[in-house]
Amino acid sequence: MEKPSLEINQPDTHEEGKLYVVDSLNNLNKLNVCPDESQHSLDEEENTGGTGENMAGSNTGNQCLFFITFILTLIISLALVSFVIFLIIQTRNKMDQISSRLLSEKKNIEELKKINNILLKHLNQSGIKD
């Protein structure tokens, strides 16, 4: 039962090697079994002492930040789409105004042509009689 004094004084490298191998196998098993994100959370859980409070807090914070960013993006997109629709409506109204002006000017020009023709006929008729 008693160990010789030489064995007690020597460092037990064989036991340390066994522990190192077991740790390596555990890590390899975690890599094979768990996806990357789960492995990352397991590593953090080991670092925090297994409570997982930091992970839950940061995960909730990340989700909150994601939703706030998502809502802001939606609001900005809605504002941009509304502005584009407003510009389209304004452009349509301006085009309608311009086309109505062109039609009225076209009618005025046709009336002026008719008046011009009547004047020319009248001048030609009066010039022939003199």
TrEMBL record:
Organism domain of life: Eukaryota
Keywords carried by this UniProt record: Membrane, Transmembrane, Transmembrane helix
Iron-sulfur keyword on record: no
Entry-linked InterPro entries: DUF4577
Transmembrane segments: 65-89
A Pfam family: DUF4577
Transmembrane helix is among the record's keywords: yes
Region (Disordered): 36-58
PANTHER family: LEUCINE-RICH SINGLE-PASS MEMBRANE PROTEIN 1 (PTHR36475)
Listed name of the protein: LSME1 protein
Organism annotation: Sclerurus mexicanus (tawny-throated leaftosser)
Gene name of the encoded protein: Lsmem1
